[in-house]
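Tutorial handout. Part one gives the primary structure; part two gives the three-dimensional structure as tokens.
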Amino acid sequence: MTEDRARYRHDRASAAPALADVDAVFDALAHEARRQLILLLGHLGGELSSGYLAARFQHSWPTTTRHLKVLEQAGIVSVRREGRSSHYRLDRDRLRTIVGGWLAHVEPVDPALTWPASGPTTTSALADAGTDIPKKRRSKGHDR
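Part two.
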């Protein structure tokens, strides 16, 4: 493995998001309505008012604002309050950091970093190899 590739993996591993942040973001993403709100904010960009967002869903305004509150608490959206109105903006950088950091843990391992197999590779080869370790014998009447 090249030195640059090793440094890249180390940098990504050291920049892993906190488990509490990962849990908060994935909990927020678990509900379909919140994922739709994120898509709407992402596609339209900029700030959108809660009234505008609520008008695009079958849910009531209070239900939509509760979903927006969950997204805000997870740090996925930021809110700017102006009088009685609230304007929401998607925090793309946080979403990329948390989800991307989590996905780094499921990347395939570089084959150069794996240990080569040194033992039998099939069940029959394992049976043929035998073992030096004697098997324990149970005495009669001592069942577990």
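Part three, for discussion. The first strand starts at residue 48 and ends at 49. The domain at 11-106 is CATH 1.10.10.10 (Arc Repressor Mutant, subunit A).
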